Every structure is written in structure tokens, then in C-alpha cells.
User: Fold this.
Amino acid sequence: MPSRSTRPLRRHPRRVLRSRTPFVSVILAALLATAAVSGLARAGDPKTPLGKWMKPNMGAPLAGEDYDALKKSLDLVAGKTPKGDYPQWSAMATAGSAAAAKQDLKAVKASCKQCHDAYKDKYIKDFPDQPFP
Assistant:
């Protein structure tokens, strides 16, 4: 009879499955959670070049209260009114720029909200691929 050390190790298939099931379950759950979070992140991504430009040029300065960068970006947006029915575009951006010059964060945010409420969906529909700036 061969010694224990030279004898091949044989495991019962059910024991192998039972011992690995928790590990496989954890890995599968982590992969599914990652996929779900990735899908949510993509849903919130900007849909236009303007939106992609706004993230680093307006969103980041707004979060960091960088009023000089906000003023510069809002002045640029004010000068780039899209063709069509966007009558208050420039005025809203100019108001935001003036608020940034005064370092009035609440007024800057109000200007952004006013413009987004009025034009964001329309702009996405009208100009999905319009280069900006």
C-alpha cells in the first residue's frame, strides 16, 4: 500500500464545490456590482461636447470655488449662443459671470440652474455633436 504522501489526493466532487461556492459567489457578486455601478456612471456622463467641456471647466471650478476660472468659462459660454431659440443663453451666462466676479457662489449656482432648466434638454436634442468651444 502506498504511503499517504505518494498517494494521489482525491476529493469528493461535492466537497470541492461546497468549499469553493462561497468564494465564487463573492467574486460573482463583486463583478455584478461593478457592472451595475459602471452602467450608472455611464448614464450620468455628459451627452454633448459642451457637457464634456463643462465638467472640467465649470464643474471642477465650481466645486473648488475657483471664481476666476468660473468667470472666464462663463464669459466664453456667454459669447457662444447656439443658433436657434436660446434667447436668454447669453444673459444667463453673463449673470453667472458677474456673480463669479463677486464671489457669490449661490448666485453662480442659480445662474447655472436657470440655464440648465431652460436649455439643457433642448440643447442635447438640437446639438448632440456640436463641437465646443
In short: Confidence is low (pLDDT under 50) at residues 37-41. The chain is about 70% helix and 0% strand. The CA atoms of residues 76 and 133 lie 8 Å apart.
